[in-house]
Amino acid sequence: MAVRVAHAVSPAFPDGQLYVELQRGDAFREPADVLGELLRALGVGPGAVPADSGERVALYRGLLSHRRVLIVLDGARDEAQVRPLLPASPTCAAVVTSLEMLSTLGGTRHVRLGLLTAEESREILARMLGRERVAAEEGAAQDLVRYCGRLPLAIRIVGARLLERPHWRLETLARRLESERRRLDELAVGDLGVRDSLAVGYAALEVPERRAFRLLSLLETASFPVRVAAAALGLPDDRTEETLERLTAQHLLEADFVKGSGVRFSYHPLVRLYARELTFDVDPMPSRHGAVQNALAAWYARPAGALVPLRATPSAGGPAARTEAVAAAASPLPPELGFTA
């Protein structure tokens, strides 16, 4: 998306555009390292790059002071990583992408990117694969969009996989995505993967936040309030709210204000699948069952022992057992309890 924006505004920056990835693998790059790369891109010889970080910033901004250059900084960790990389000249601009809001950066305009619409998702597939190919299997195209949850990365991966396999029908990949057990396995191509992308956000969490992310995915409800999450986790409401807000900031949960109900939190379907994989790998069965029992007790204000436990299969025994466990957890709870998938 950032590259597309940069291309669209390129006429306003005739002196060029510089693109830098701020994260490599699981590690974020230090600003001094990035500045060295930017200086070399601006024509500074390797031997002329200052060793001191402050001197690198001064030289970088000096070189940009009389130029019209757009800087694209992709995958920022936080404001501290970004600030030294921003040009000081009003003739330049920067586009920064991040999972964080970076709300303390001054002089910026923040744009929160949500899910694609169904029409936008289909349009991306049509541009990647050709309109005739997509139009010939309209129903399968709609299935692909639904299984991807209108997530831009997932749509891109689906398009790339079909582009690599012109002999595949769209229906072929739709059938492979139909099973929740293998959906995240299928949503990967080359160096792109939905599971890998989510793992970056998960790795940035503290231990209590990781536990919350895993266990709350077991609740078979479209959304849940803080009090239910607090009961599931065995934490006070205020600590739970802080945890949920952190998960929301990492785009691992979604938060919406519902009139008459307050703020409620929910998982994107693909994020929920990832969280459930983790909980069956990490959390013992008593912890999983206890979280669900306590959440249901809070929801209906009944003693936990009076409620039916969530069906689950132990994860011991390898990947096959794990996927069975995930599938069991994905089964709706009894409808009389009011939980829906």
List keywords for this structure.
single chain; 341 residues; mainly alpha; Rossmann fold; Arc Repressor Mutant, subunit A; 3-stranded parallel β-sheet; two-stranded antiparallel ribbon; 17 helices; globular; disordered C terminus
Show the helix and strand layout.
Layout: H1 2-8, E1 17-21, E2 23-24, E3 27-28, H2 31-41, H3 53-64, E4 70-76, H4 79-82, E5 93-98, H5 118-129, H6 131-135, H7 138-148, H8 152-164, H9 170-178, H10 183-186, E6 188-189, E7 192-193, H11 194-203, H12 207-215, H13 226-233, H14 237-249, E8 254-258, E9 262-266, H15 269-282, H16 285-300, H17 319-330
Parallel strand pairs: 1-4, 4-5
Antiparallel strand pairs: 2-3, 6-7, 8-9
Helix pairs in contact: 2-3, 5-7, 5-8, 7-9, 12-14, 12-15, 13-14, 13-16, 15-17
Provide an overview of this structure:
The protein folds into 3 domains: 1-98, P-loop containing nucleotide triphosphate hydrolases (Rossmann fold, 3-Layer(aba) Sandwich), CATH 3.40.50; 118-190, no CATH class; 205-300, Orthogonal Bundle (Arc Repressor Mutant, subunit A). 50% of the residues lie in helices and 11% in strands. The chain has 17 helices and 9 strands. The protein has a 3-stranded parallel beta sheet with strand order 1-4-5, sandwiched between helices. Strand 4 (70-76), helix 4 and strand 5 form a beta-alpha-beta unit. The longest helix has 16 residues, at 285-300. The two termini are 31 Å apart.
